[in-house]
Every structure is written in C-alpha cells, then in structure tokens.
Design a protein that fits this description.
By secondary structure, this protein is α/β, with parallel strands linked by helices. It has helices at residues 2-17, 33-44, 76-90, 113-118, 122-141, 157-162, 191-199, 201-210, 216-222, 238-250, 254-269, 272-286, 290-297; strands spanning 50-55, 60-66, 97-102, 145-150, 153-155, 167-171, 175-177, 213-215, 228-229. The strands form two sheets. A six-stranded mixed beta sheet has the order 1-2-3-4-6-9, with helices on both faces. A three-stranded mixed beta sheet has the order 5-7-8. The structure holds propionyl Coenzyme A.
C-alpha cells in the first residue's frame, strides 16, 4: 500500500520533473550568439593539441588536456573542443563522475601564450574570457561529481580550470599557481570568483596578489586540495587513485548521484527561496523512483 502511494505520488511529481528548471547548459551570457560565432572563428585560428574525452561504462568520464609540447597550454581549438565535450557531458544520462587531468604528467599551463599575444586587444580578450567563463561554469554545473587530478603544474588558466571541478586531488610534487599578476592580469575564466568560494576571500587575495606556488600540503591546509595522491611507487596509477577516491561519492544509481549534485549546485548558486523550490523539484524527480522504491522494499537499515 505504502509503495503504491509512493508510486502514485512519483507519477504525479514526475509529471512535474520536466518542469525542473534546467541547471545544465544555462548560458552565463545570454543573447550573445554573434559574439560566440565571432570568437569561435578567432579561436579556430589557433590550432594545436586536443582535449580528449573518454566516457566509461562505470559512469566515470576522463577529460584529458593534451598539448604536451606546450605543457598542456590551451590552444584556441582546445577551448572549442572543451566546450563540445561539456555539451556532450551535459546530456550523459548514465554519468556519475568526471576526472579532469593533463597529459604527460602535468596539468595545464593556461592559455597558449601565442594566442594570448595575438588576441591581446581588450575586445578579443574579453570575448575569450566570456567564452571560457561560460564553458567552465557549465563544467562546474555538470550533474556529475568532478575532480581535478593535478600532477606537475597548474598555471594561470590551468589553475582556474582546477577550480571548475567540485574537488581537487594533488600529486605530492604538484603545484597550483595563479600566475596572472606576474603577466599583468587577473583571472578571467571565472577562476577568481570560484577561488573565493573555495578558500575564502582572504586566502584568495593572498594567492592572487602573491602569485605564489601552492604545493600539495599548503593547498590541503587552506582547503584548495581535497587530498594528496601517493607517490607512484604504489601499484595504482594516479588516475586509478583518483577513480578510487571518487568512488566514495559516486556509488549508486546515476539519477540519484545527479540529483545530489543538482541540489548542491542550486544551494550554492541560487537565493534561498529559489534553491528551496529547485530542491523540491529535484526531490520530486527521485521520490518514488526506482532506487527509492527498491530501498524501501529492502527495509534498508543505516547501521
Ligand atoms: C588565462 C590566462 C593565462 O592562462 S596566461 C598563461 C599563463 N601561463 C604561463 O605564463 C606559463 C608560461 N610558461 C612557464 O612558466 C613554463 O613554460 C612552465 C609551464 C613553468 C614550464 O617550464 P619548463 O618545465 O621549464 O618547460 P618550458 O618552459 O621549457 O616549456 C616547454 C615548452 O612549453 C611551452 N609553453 C609552456 N607554457 C606555455 C604556454 N602557456 N603557452 C605556450 N607555450 C607554452 C614553452 O614555451 C616551451 O616551448 P619551447 O620548447 O620553448 O618551444
């Protein structure tokens, strides 16, 4: 009887699920399609490297920033590829987790300085900034639990990319460095706004104004890193270690994991009243759903 009621309620609520405001794919800047087309054309003119996406059966995807000749700097075409992959991941209904990493033992040295030099007028700079803000905001909002696996260096825009993941894991000898000040800049890919939320405004101010190298232990101390990976004498590769770490949070069916991430995103981004409504709608999408009914039937005990 209880289950029938739950099932009925789920049907009622599920009808409303299609009305759940979409968190996914929401643009940071709306109505800017001409600007997008223009900047995409410009980015296309700076080729090199790739951003590779592997989606595994387990529901974990691995996104690799791959331009080792330039310490995994982001070329223009890599920025475009990253955006395409984020669009693909937004639609991945079986997904649960995402690991963002760099090729060849280092994370990313930011924007390709050749592109930076060529697009150094402020109009182009602002367009690139809008493009990357949009992509990285959507990356952080993905309904997947994401972790940046940092080996080697994460510099400039590379440091900003680490903040577009829910968590960061750092190899023992790795460093995150917001070098922007040293090249007369501030973060522009949304990295400052996210850093303040991760480490607080005082720590963010220290990191941005000193451009200091943040090693794994200091990063952990200020809450920038969520764990230090063991040196590679262990049997596991760093990727395997990251997958193992992530599995503590991605166990269970994907609709539930995705719902967990969505309530956190709305709690983080929306005013309380809107976050509560969103939470109600997301709750409605899992209440009486298969995982919920199965657990109720098992008379699950949390011992
Ligand atoms: C959003 C704002 C931004 O992201 S602005 C970009 C901020 N990034 C930087 O300023 C990084 C500048 N690069 C460096 O400080 C060093 O190359 C680092 C990354 C520390 C690596 O040093 P090291 O291990 O000695 O290697 P290296 O300098 O010989 O570099 C190997 C080759 O890679 C290149 N490289 C490196 N970073 C970039 C980059 N961001 N854009 C373009 N190319 C880059 C180096 O120039 C070098 O190339 P080459 O072997 O000289 O042809």
């Amino acid at each position: 009887m209880v289950l029938r009621c739950v099932g009925h309620l789920h049907q009622l609520l599920y009808r409303n699920a299609s009305r759940i405001p979409r968190q996914r794919g929401k643009a940071v800047y709306s109505g800017a399609s001409e600007v997008w087309n223009e900047i995409k054309k410009k980015l296309q003119a700076f080729p090199g490297g790739s951003v590779d996406l592997i989606k595994k059966e387990s529901g974990i995807a691995v996104l690799t920033i791959n331009n080792p000749d330039r310490m995994n700097a982001f070329s223009g075409t890599m920025m475009l590829e990253l955006q395409d992959h984020v669009t693909q991941l937004e639609a991945w209904t079986n997904g649960k987790g995402l690991i963002v990493t760099g090729a060849a033992g280092t994370f990313c040295s930011g924007s390709d300085l050749n592109a930076v030099r060529a697009l150094s007028n402020s109009e182009d700079g602002i367009k690139m900034c809008m493009f990357m803000q949009d992509t990285l905001t959507r990356l952080l909002r993905l309904p997947l639990i994401s972790v940046a696996l940092v080996e080697g260096r994460a510099l400039g825009g590379g440091a900003e990319v680490t903040t577009a993941c829910d968590f960061r894991l750092m190899a023992l000898a790795s460093e995150i460095q917001f070098v922007h000040k040293q090249i007369g800049l501030v973060p522009g890919w949304g990295g400052a706004a996210r850093l303040v939320r991760i480490v607080g405004s005082e720590n963010a101010l220290k990191l941005l104004s000193s451009a200091q190298k943040v090693n794994a232990s200091y990063a952990e101390q200020i809450g920038l890193s969520d764990g230090v990976l063991s040196p590679l004498e262990t049997l596991d590769t760093t990727l395997a270690q990251a997958e193992k770490w992530l599995s503590d949070f991605t166990g269970g069916p994907s609709p539930v994991i995705q719902a967990v991430k969505k309530v956190v995103v709305s709690g983080r981004e929306l005013p309380l009243q809107d976050a509560l409504r969103m939470e109600r709608d997301i709750f409605g999408s899992v209440w009486g759903g298969p995982a919920n009914l199965e657990a109720l039937a098992l008379k699950f005990k949390h011992k």
